[in-house]
């Protein structure tokens, strides 16, 4: 293992096993995730003899049982005394099924990974496996973090940020501006997108420049980023970007892409220009800018810059788009993302299925209904044929009915399902998908746009000198019939004149060109 | 009946009739057109315009207009002049555009009657056209299916009142020359029908006319797709393919030298200018955004125009409506009114088609003149509402303006182009939303700095023992892929991992070198012969062609002896592994060669033996399912490497020597790929495959590291649902309850490689958090006062993504807490817990 590996954020390279003092996501149940910073068992913690313990409805899980295990491991619950905390009862007796990790074990284990996980002994604290209850321990990813993070503001969820990052071309090496860090879900996802190694001194690597206006959120975010080993990949600034702009320490971040999750993106947009905008966003801004001698653009001067703004209301979109048009953005495109999660289940319908939860005990098809009706009909006819005493009659009829349906049921099922008795319950019924009970019908409107590189007359003159005209060899694209014929004729003449090889080669080149087109 | 013509007519297979919607408030006027078109033909172009001024498809406008302005039920109009001259060369009296040369008179008459008889309903619904018996044998089938014409970009009913819409059907595929030729050979009957409605909305008169036409000109655009966005910008993707010094022709949009766009920034909007008198080519002009959006700005600055739909008072388009389309006449009068006045029945486009063609040929002012003239010569322009005027202008602008944009080929742009303009099925309908989701849920990202294995410096007489063994500790950040999208998925992943594009410094430097030497830069698909291996990129398969290079005497010094030691840069030995140990994509394919043809668009050709430097070379590994699952059966894996002493080697011919090295290198490569893949511990699995995902997971799940994400794309939900069902809660509960006889006594290791049976196709404990989702982006038009979602978008496959994480189940029986208490008790009493 190389040295820098130890400092890489667990989001970017979690390594093969869980580590102490690092973030892990506990999956309690399907959609119930819990982020936990694993602590080395350094003694009694918060009254627990086992050190730090996670208590859930699925059992108690001392951190020691979750350290230095392979990611994805299923962790058994431990018998933890949650009742007598503070009474400091000494636990004793190691169970042979117990698993734990020693306090100083990390380095040892890395040296001898084979001996890492199980059956090492501890002097002080020992976690005893419970008979039931388990969780899974997963490496942190932006997706897991997004579903488990502490909410501070509205969260940009995976369906949105995955599409946004794809559209704004956030790639390894890109520099991204994010305004409105919020809860940090987009920050984490964008760090993963632009990450191409930690920057050495003075090196330009993929980086996120994040801005947060709210001071409390800023501090929480700051701590979170350093806990996640991302502080060198994210430059977080506490600032009101409407007035303050996007420069960092007076220097341009040279951003390739921008994401604005702000209530009024149009106020921030003028700062994201190539040149000093003609009209300042407001009077304050105008004054501030007048004071500056030289206006610096926060954008990468050598590239087209992609932007996305994230606004919940259509009025915000209208104003944003209007501002974008005036500031020279092109390819303006507005979309909203509708995401649906689907649940799969087995739909079990039939008269003769057992009364489990989720079973619809009505007729499976017309034949079954018909058989049932015939059955009832024939029985009542039978019954009508033999007049009896009322009470007796009712009872026996009921009993008969019960017996008959049972008998019939088995008969009806057996041939239909090819040995139904052996069909396990999880394979019964028809496999269906349906949407989750509540769907997010609207998150926000996404406005995308592109700001091309600045292109001056001098640039054009330089390019024109570099790529001179007048040497065009042929025409590609939608050529009309006449031109094509003419070309062919010339070719044939050349073949006759200059002899085969050169002309054939030229022809082949042209074919290649056409194929490429 | 001319037998030749009969054959032509039979080329029109089935027929259909189409209508537009009925218009309740229109006093009189035409409301629908019908086309007889082959059912299989995909509409390629739509035209529209003001019917009173310009008749569809080159019909004589004045006759046509006259015929429908004084409606009588048996109205006919002469159709001479419509180009059918090639129709029946044997009989010149019948080259009049009627179908009398190819169809019996009875058939023609009855078709016309039927077109009237199949009246459009009050609701304006489309009705099928019944083909008369007399046409049997000439037109196949007996009915046509209904076909609604929807003009691109405008679908509001109100817009149809004064316009015609007609669909033109061109050969099925753009660039398909044979079907174009076929279309030009065939005769295409066009059935025109119209109906007049009274104010109550009842149909009063109808008339129909059949004419026959031939395709005379092709409108194919082979230069790439065009996309007309809300901003009226013509984007041309696909231009990076053609960087030879050439002239690029956009067909009717004009042509220009390619050196006018090379070296310029992307995303600028260019306009094709008129040819200067002393030049034989068109120059380009960069259109400033103020001009692009002039119309919108004008609307925004005139507040009462912001909501034209609500225009109860006179809504007027201001005279300052941008400089590009002056909607004022020569005296500077304003030219738009509210909808209080009804379009005059004499209102029509006074320009004939010939005049318009003439204007276009003159190519004045990038098409803007044509548009302006069309608008100005529309005698009823002042009676149009600003709303319909905007639509009319949009139609004309799309048709005539000569603007375009050059876009870089990145995954997002390319995928959209492939999806919308090319063949969506080739990429399994993989939409941008899905690419994003799969990439994120697969956690695909940069997997660490490159780590190369040391060169073993194996001598040529050393066999298998000299190879470098796979070091599992070095393997990091590797993703496993099954890709049936021709390489788009691999490209998307490579983009996310930073191995799709050459680093910017290298590419600009290279471009500069090439510009200096005046050599044409490499096309994207072709290999450039002169590309030097850049020092920034480790040399890889370059050496594969050393024999060929030697034979071609590109390095004369090498020719004398064993070229390996004479080179300035020491050539890596045959057993050197060219692949990085980190940040790699491993493709498993079901055919002997992977189909990654779309990677050609990014300059990577997996089949090329002598590949110029490309980041994918070191980071893309591929192997077949056979090599993964039964490597001993694969010849190239199991045949031991050739050996030869340097002396023997020196005595061989160069070609034999080359083969010897090539085989040894291939052996080392395949060994490395197979061994490292089988070592497992992949960081994730990403799939877009037509194969059953259950079978894919059966063999790939054991290869994944714990906690590694799985993301599987499928165009339809059913395969994913079946997969998710393998991990259903009841199934997993049954599996872990210990009451499954077939898994009793199996170790965890054996359970990981569980080969599946009917009851348990997969080990249900190997994945956690199984979930299926779908995403859809809905696009909106944002214009002042007219913001709404687009009326139509691409349909087809919805696209679903299956996500989960690889779990490492604990040894022995594990009981859940809480929810399944009752079952837990049951199972516990049934089989005592082993641990």
TrEMBL record, chain A:
<dbReference type="InterPro" id="IPR014816">
    <property type="entry name" value="tRNA_MeTrfase_Gcd14"/>
</dbReference>
<feature type="compositionally biased region" description="Basic and acidic residues">
    <location>
        <begin position="506"/>
        <end position="517"/>
    </location>
</feature>
<keyword id="KW-0539">Nucleus</keyword>
<protein>
    <recommendedName>
        <fullName>tRNA (adenine(58)-N(1))-methyltransferase catalytic subunit TRM61</fullName>
        <ecNumber>2.1.1.220</ecNumber>
    </recommendedName>
</protein>
<feature type="region of interest" description="Disordered">
    <location>
        <begin position="486"/>
        <end position="517"/>
    </location>
</feature>
<keyword id="KW-0949">S-adenosyl-L-methionine</keyword>
<keyword id="KW-0808">Transferase</keyword>
<keyword id="KW-0819">tRNA processing</keyword>
<feature type="domain" description="tRNA (adenine(58)-N(1))-methyltransferase catalytic subunit TRM61 C-terminal">
    <location>
        <begin position="302"/>
        <end position="450"/>
    </location>
</feature>
<feature type="region of interest" description="Disordered">
    <location>
        <begin position="78"/>
        <end position="121"/>
    </location>
</feature>
<keyword id="KW-0489">Methyltransferase</keyword>
<dbReference type="InterPro" id="IPR029063">
    <property type="entry name" value="SAM-dependent_MTases_sf"/>
</dbReference>
<dbReference type="GO" id="GO:0030488">
    <property type="term" value="P:tRNA methylation"/>
</dbReference>
<dbReference type="GO" id="GO:0005634">
    <property type="term" value="C:nucleus"/>
</dbReference>
<feature type="region of interest" description="Disordered">
    <location>
        <begin position="377"/>
        <end position="428"/>
    </location>
</feature>
<dbReference type="InterPro" id="IPR049470">
    <property type="entry name" value="TRM61_C"/>
</dbReference>
<dbReference type="GO" id="GO:0160107">
    <property type="term" value="F:tRNA (adenine(58)-N1)-methyltransferase activity"/>
</dbReference>
<dbReference type="GO" id="GO:0031515">
    <property type="term" value="C:tRNA (m1A) methyltransferase complex"/>
</dbReference>
<dbReference type="Pfam" id="PF08704">
    <property type="entry name" value="GCD14"/>
</dbReference>
<feature type="compositionally biased region" description="Basic and acidic residues">
    <location>
        <begin position="377"/>
        <end position="389"/>
    </location>
</feature>
<feature type="domain" description="tRNA (adenine(58)-N(1))-methyltransferase catalytic subunit TRM61 C-terminal">
    <location>
        <begin position="133"/>
        <end position="274"/>
    </location>
</feature>
UniProtKB/TrEMBL annotation, chain B:
<dbReference type="GO" id="GO:0030488">
    <property type="term" value="P:tRNA methylation"/>
</dbReference>
<feature type="region of interest" description="Disordered">
    <location>
        <begin position="816"/>
        <end position="835"/>
    </location>
</feature>
<dbReference type="Pfam" id="PF04189">
    <property type="entry name" value="Gcd10p"/>
</dbReference>
<feature type="region of interest" description="Disordered">
    <location>
        <begin position="503"/>
        <end position="577"/>
    </location>
</feature>
<protein>
    <recommendedName>
        <fullName>tRNA (adenine(58)-N(1))-methyltransferase non-catalytic subunit TRM6</fullName>
    </recommendedName>
</protein>
<feature type="compositionally biased region" description="Basic and acidic residues">
    <location>
        <begin position="507"/>
        <end position="517"/>
    </location>
</feature>
<keyword id="KW-0539">Nucleus</keyword>
<feature type="compositionally biased region" description="Polar residues">
    <location>
        <begin position="525"/>
        <end position="534"/>
    </location>
</feature>
<dbReference type="GO" id="GO:0005634">
    <property type="term" value="C:nucleus"/>
</dbReference>
<dbReference type="InterPro" id="IPR017423">
    <property type="entry name" value="TRM6"/>
</dbReference>
<keyword id="KW-0819">tRNA processing</keyword>
<comment type="similarity">
    <text>Belongs to the TRM6/GCD10 family.</text>
</comment>
<dbReference type="GO" id="GO:0031515">
    <property type="term" value="C:tRNA (m1A) methyltransferase complex"/>
</dbReference>
